[in-house]
Write a structure and sequence with these properties.
Elements lengths: L1 E7 L8 E5 L11 H4 L15 E8 L15
Antiparallel strand pairs: 1-2, 1-3
Length: 74
């Protein structure tokens, strides 16, 4: 799990907001920011990401959910 900070000149983003994602190197993929960042509303997909910056804050080994194994049908 990766912890990212999104910040920028848009209202509410000046100090930066932290969020979790399982996407590695998210800062290099602005096309995924709407999907991964809960602070960017997908209903307002016209919200410009210009001026926003995503940076990696922390990498954790701890998953947010336990892995589930499914029995395969024979």
């Amino acid at each position: 799990m990766f912890v990212y900070k999104i910040s920028g000149r848009q209202p509410g983003f000046a100090d930066g907001l932290l969020f979790n994602s399982c996407v590695k190197d998210l800062q290099g993929h602005p096309e995924l920011w709407l999907d991964e960042c809960p602070y960017l509303h997908t209903s307002a997909s016209t919200m410009p990401t210009d001026g926003l910056r995503v940076e990696l804050v922390k990498v954790t080994e701890r998953a947010s959910a336990r892995p589930v194994s499914f029995a395969l049908a024979a």
